[in-house]
Design brief:
Elements: E1 2-5, E2 8-11, E3 19-22, H1 24-30, H2 39-48, H3 53-65, E4 80-84, H4 87-99, E5 103-107, H5 112-116, E6 130-132, E7 143-150, H6 157-165, E8 170-175, E9 179-186, H7 194-204, H8 208-215, H9 224-242, E10 252-257, E11 262-267
Helix pairs in contact: 2-3, 4-9
Organism: Friedmanniella luteola
Protein name: Bacteriocin biosynthesis cyclodehydratase domain-containing protein
Length: 286
Amino acid sequence: MLRRGPDAVQVGLHPGRAVVLHGAGPRALLRHLDGATARARLDEHGAAAGLSRAEVAEVLDRLAVAGLLETPGDRAPARAVRLVGTGQLGQRLAELLLEAGLDLHLADAADASAVADGGPLPRSSGVGRLRPVDHWSKPDGALLLTVVVVDTVEVDRVLTAHLLRTDQPHLVLRSSGTGVTVGPLVLPGRTACVRCTDLTRRDADPAWPVLLAQLVRLHRPAPAVPAAWGAAVAAAHVLAHLDGVVPESAGATLDLDEDDHLVRWRAWPQHAGCGCTWSGTTEWHA
């Protein structure tokens, strides 16, 4: 809450959503919007400040319309994301997603026992919940996205093909040694998939399949700054997707380069030879 003058206060900072209230009555009412005061009591506090019930309701309505008023019933249920892969890049992303209140299903066979014992995220505030799952497990109804994080130059195509085949939206985050690449965010049937990018690269360079076979095994962990940068961008794109917003990584990649500290965005078309837009039926196998 900010003072705008002797008789006005501003609630909120966003230019398009901030609400300006005039008069001593509304200012007094705001002091009781602490999350612990019942609605009926707000009418009593408003009356003590010289406000009618209608005026109290008007103040509350303005704040609610602007998204500045939260009631217990407004709180969204927990949302879940599966994270495949850890390492420095994966750990930084996991910490951010937990801080954002997401439930995190960590799928990495090498670290599952550590997670079960309370690790490997000691710096996380634990706002969200963390539990180990299997790479190939069927996602439950709460799981809205899978994020694949690797410290190799390219991601394992067996995993991304499985996610596409089972209609699971997924975001790729990978390291190149001197930087990090965020994307593509694959929305099956709607955006380019990882195989689309391979076919486009093969069209431009026939040697790409040979190079790819080596790059999926080439470990190049990102330095601290690009890792933090890439994890922050990826976390923002995860939250955007969960909120129903299509982020810049949908069918595209963002290369974050430590050498010149620039972001290079590239859109990838759905390749005619891929077939990822064909309709089909998802099958789960035990």
